[in-house]
Amino acid sequence: xxxxxxxxxxxxxxxxxxxxxxxxxxxxxxxxxxxxxxxxxxxxxxxxxxxxxxxxxxxxxxxxxxxxxxxxxxxxxxxxxxxxxxxxxxxxxxxxxxxxxxxxxxxxxxxxxxxxxxxxxxxxxxxxxxxxxxxxxxxxxxxxxxxxxxxxxxxxxxxxxxxxxxxxxxxxxxxxxxxxxxxxxxxxxxxxxxxxxxxxxxxxxxxxxxxxxxxxxxxxxxxxxxxxxxxxxxxxxxxxxxxxxxxxxxxxxxxxxxxxxxxxxxxxxxxxxxxxxxxxxxxxxxxxxxxxxxxxxxxxxxxxxxxxxxxxxxxxxxxxxxxxxxxxxxxxxxxxxxxxxxxxxxxxxxxxxxxxxxxxxxxxxxxxxxxxxxxxxxxxxxxxxxxxx
Amino acid sequence: xxxxxxxxxxxxxxxxxxxxxxxxxxxxxxxxxxxxxxxxxxxxxxxxxxxxxxxxxxxxxxxxxxxxxxxxxxxxxxxxxxxxxxxxxxxxxxxxxxxxxxxxxxxxxxxxxxxxxxxxxxxxxxxxxxxxxxxxxxxxxxxxxxxxxxxxxxxxxxxxxxxxxxxxxxxxxxxxxxxxxxxxxxxxxxxxxxxxxxxxxxxxxxxxxxxxxxxxxxxxxxxxxxxxxxxxxxxxxxxxxxxxxxxxxxxxxxxxxxxxxxxxxxxxxxxxxxxxxxxxxxxxxxxxxxxxxxxxxxxxxxxxxxxxxxxxxxxxxxxxxxxxxxxxxxxxxxxxxxxxxxxxxxxxxxxxxxxxxxxxxxxxxxxxxxxxxxxxxxxxxxxxxxxxxxxxxxxxxxxxxxxxx
Lengths: 389, 405
Hints:
A: Elongation Factor Tu (Ef-tu), domain 3, Rossmann fold, five-stranded parallel sheet, B: mainly alpha, disordered N terminus, oxidoreductase activity, acting on paired donors, with oxidation of a pair of donors resulting in the reduction of molecular oxygen to two molecules of water (chain B)
């Protein structure tokens, strides 16, 4: 029925969905309602440290249950513009079931797009008006979770794209080593919360060791880690600092019989993956990962130096440089592209950038890292890109 | 009945179009060779160019570009939540007008006045959808919002013309090559002779009637025209233009969008009204007609007033940004009016600003206009503006004037 109505909406009202056609009308009563998104009320905003903020959200009832370790896309309107960022949920199923809330922990960048919005929110929270603010969130996504064998709750999740190299036998409990970098601690905090509240002995007795790398004195949520250690005798952790404690490789030497889970910047993942690859083949280590490409520091000067980036265009990839426009390079590569004026007027060559940063050749302005429409004829690559025509 | 008229227009347009094409071929290829047959035309052209250049000084193009760029940068920094809220408000008003209209049409049996209000309401909704929402959103003016529905890729308007076909022809050909004879096919829509750049033909004698017909059927005219229909249906091809979509695909789009519009207004909603089928049927017909007349009139006032200049293909070879601005400015004309008038024209009453800055949200043109006018004055460029009746009279005069050799 719903499909039929949406079909009719597309045919006669030229909107992809019937709800989309009525969006502005619904927004009269419910300003943050958006077709295709879930809503969540902002319960509180608080500062964790100089560089990080904690956001407690109350998702609407029909929002699906998440599994500890999954992430969501958070969408807010900043000065008329919808800005979307992806965050790992830093809380487990328990707090959602008991209080209905989920928690996000985010690093605040000085000139980040979300920063002004968040600081406006935290000033509002002083006046208690914050609970009236709603944001849009996506359904929980991702497969970075404690392996099925030990988390029966997670068993219903299918894991088609999982990077997990399944080595563990289902009935055998294999110790877990969590390797976190910076704000990459968030999925592990969620997992620890759920492990501690789990009823099954099987889970309570899962040995877990956490290696947490961060800059000196910038480790997040250390109180909570201490609390988890107090509650769970099988959990141990080390707060590490690269300058003081060196790399991750020698620390992992003692844990070759474990399941490794790594979450953090690309560099940390690379290091762990290398270590994993260099282990003798007889070992029994499996590796699960979630890593974020660090947001590149792109400045106006970057364009002077020729650089090559990879471009994923409609699923197939090619290499592009930062000297010519994307349109020129796609044409040279004989890719099927629609185009027109070649000077940014006609929007013929417009396509959806799923991720990556581009420079507008007319103004030199850099784009956002998130999904948005770009015009190929006036865009140059600044980072690796993923496009969809 | 509708289909008959439609076929007629199609035929007329085909015949006239072929003349234009010959004119274009001639102009492009024989520019430096005076072939006897067309000597007269070239002479008259040169005469008109020289009179123009004698009373217009050539502006400092790079300064013009810097100044207009500055106006644009200044406005761009102001664009934000106000503009997002504005376009959502207009969409809300459109929904309100549309459904008030559609319901009142069915209530026409109680009191005919309700039907009249219904027609006006539905016509307003269609005008808002085409002008302030459709035209502007499809220009990419609101793409920065990252909204799923309000962006140039997703938006599709409520007229017979397929949005992506329009996007291709209007945004590309018309906005890039504004008023360049032979490249901007919007100049006269291939039906009307509006300057001496086209050779006179006997058919031009009754082009005023053609104009009235075009206005009445405007949505179909645009739809047909934007598809470069004569090339699709009758197999004409131009060497210098790449066919980016197959003809079959274009044909499919023309019929599918057009048919959907016909079914919606003349079958679906009338049937929903049950016994009041005819009330709704005629109401929709009148609403569509009012919309057609309004949009056609506003668009003609934007480019075909008496003082608007035309350009030749050579003018835009290696064109600088300043020269481009110059051509856009002189190829367009504004209409003065009140706030509501501007909204109903989709701010195309600020056609000059729209052509200079096609992807700035149109509601901002009003505050840019005084600055643009001052810059034009400084460079001795004619800022073509006037009241609605003055501009429209000048359009009609132009159509009549060029009916004759």
